[in-house]
């Protein structure tokens, strides 16, 4: 393995991931242009790179500064990989090469090393999509000639190996087809990378070790010279400028006793970083498919599976009882191809023993899935929801609250760094599919958890309670927000068939998307934010959205009641906040009628905000099954709405509620109605039950005095959480006091000086002055 030097190119770059994260949201740095390994440098280094390093993170103890390290004996690395204390969990690789850069059809899929691919027919501009792992492209077969490293993401390449100027390229090479000689899969796991820089040749002098991205290697502005290098593990890019700037050099594992390959005696390396993979991911979840073979390298008898298999061979006891030597089609598993979905393989029958996560890809032999041995006896697909991963880990069994707990929403490479600790005795997976590891950096025993409750380590197959790192399995998506774009600013009862929304950005307000015309069919609530694919929008993969409706602002506090019987009878369950799992809280999820007293509520058929959803505004629903088409509610939450400013317009008089007086003396300030003046004293905001005036937002509307009776006047006071400061704005326009719900805002009337003062009066359907309209600004 040799270093490579970067050269100029006319490649178009986008979507690279240099951290352990999902593909969505990836960005490419401006320095990643091209890494180009010359043949001369390759010959120079043949005698300098005897090995690939070691899995041991403390490998520096094996280094002798005055001599090269001997070659690693055959089988040594495999033994280290399967060591129970430092077991490496490899992942499959996958990249797709498209001959046409603007087309995603007829791509060449690559899963493993390709010694000779020079016969592939490619166009002059190709699109390379790396889905898993890090790879190196070589100009010549057998991993020879100039080379080019790839991380996960997409890359458009033009004239890959040409060193001509851009003008010469346009003139001579614009139609020249691309040629790739060979391809190597180089980063397959998450083990810690390490590179040592020495101030002297042959490993002499002061050594400085690096394990991750380093934007500036110098200390206090001083950078030590480098005369020799040892790469323990990883593919490293080194730069002579800080911040990963300049032309990089690519180094693969091995010892570099001097810098002759770089045509230097010494160098000042100011920044460096290893190539990195993204997180675990699944591409297709609709129809899981896997092919298992009896022998390694996809030989022997194959068997295609689309569902779980409990055992590959009948147990001896069952044979004796039946008197038959009955076996399933296969007696062993030598290699595996996962075509769709994500699967879990188990060492023993009945989903027992060591667990191995199988992503889409090709596993040539048992070492490729990180097996402890060749034995693999059962398989099952994971059919869970991969969106919005969330789990809670507890240090005590049965989700005990006496110990510590931690909410986990993403990747954690070492739980010790969080302060939570390494002991986990129960886990509640609220959503997503998770892989938890016994050791840091995703090494050691692994356990796969989908949604559900795990009250003890035995529930997830653990031999002890140690968990040191975790990561979710992400749903892979095509690059988001591409293709045709349409902007919607109002209700749309029909979206033309020529436009099929696949992603969306909600820039303002909240919307309901429907899969049928005229605001009918299944509902999908979209709040402000970005949705990179249909799954993120809560839609099944094949959904076609046909209409859109704006959700109006609702100025009332969220309150909802669920009933076990129709007509609001039977057991009543009242909620004011979100409920993630109705059944988990001890309630019966079969609901017959619903009353929404305030707020906008999103109702979900299943727990964890899954299944069909429906948006409800304040209303009464005596027969929930008839309206919704289902008879259960698994979870629910109030719609999040931004705080909005509005003016309160009295429907009878046409005037606006105003704060009249000086905020420096609140005792003299009164609330009355006046003509429209467009000033802050007529602008209000509703928040958590308080009505506040924009000219004094630390104050809120209150009933004046301690004796609350019809006719009591209103004023402003500092927020004190007093009952008389809470209000409920009803859809009919009446604003009720929460302290005395029979009292609503009204205008005093009459002919006296205070005829325009706002007071509270008993509800009277015949008094139109009690009806107000909130005009949102």
UniProtKB/TrEMBL annotation:
<dbReference type="InterPro" id="IPR035992">
    <property type="entry name" value="Ricin_B-like_lectins"/>
</dbReference>
<feature type="domain" description="Beta/gamma crystallin 'Greek key'">
    <location>
        <begin position="558"/>
        <end position="598"/>
    </location>
</feature>
<dbReference type="InterPro" id="IPR050252">
    <property type="entry name" value="Beta/Gamma-Crystallin"/>
</dbReference>
<keyword id="KW-0677">Repeat</keyword>
<protein>
    <submittedName>
        <fullName>Crystallin beta-gamma domain containing 1</fullName>
    </submittedName>
</protein>
<feature type="domain" description="Beta/gamma crystallin 'Greek key'">
    <location>
        <begin position="509"/>
        <end position="552"/>
    </location>
</feature>
<dbReference type="InterPro" id="IPR011024">
    <property type="entry name" value="G_crystallin-like"/>
</dbReference>
<feature type="domain" description="Beta/gamma crystallin 'Greek key'">
    <location>
        <begin position="432"/>
        <end position="474"/>
    </location>
</feature>
<dbReference type="GO" id="GO:0002088">
    <property type="term" value="P:lens development in camera-type eye"/>
</dbReference>
<dbReference type="GO" id="GO:0005212">
    <property type="term" value="F:structural constituent of eye lens"/>
</dbReference>
<comment type="similarity">
    <text>Belongs to the beta/gamma-crystallin family.</text>
</comment>
<dbReference type="InterPro" id="IPR001064">
    <property type="entry name" value="Beta/gamma_crystallin"/>
</dbReference>
<dbReference type="Pfam" id="PF00652">
    <property type="entry name" value="Ricin_B_lectin"/>
</dbReference>
<feature type="domain" description="Beta/gamma crystallin 'Greek key'">
    <location>
        <begin position="341"/>
        <end position="383"/>
    </location>
</feature>
<dbReference type="Pfam" id="PF00030">
    <property type="entry name" value="Crystall"/>
</dbReference>
<dbReference type="GO" id="GO:0007601">
    <property type="term" value="P:visual perception"/>
</dbReference>
<feature type="domain" description="Beta/gamma crystallin 'Greek key'">
    <location>
        <begin position="234"/>
        <end position="276"/>
    </location>
</feature>
<dbReference type="InterPro" id="IPR000772">
    <property type="entry name" value="Ricin_B_lectin"/>
</dbReference>
<feature type="domain" description="Beta/gamma crystallin 'Greek key'">
    <location>
        <begin position="599"/>
        <end position="640"/>
    </location>
</feature>
<feature type="domain" description="Beta/gamma crystallin 'Greek key'">
    <location>
        <begin position="288"/>
        <end position="340"/>
    </location>
</feature>
<feature type="domain" description="Beta/gamma crystallin 'Greek key'">
    <location>
        <begin position="133"/>
        <end position="179"/>
    </location>
</feature>
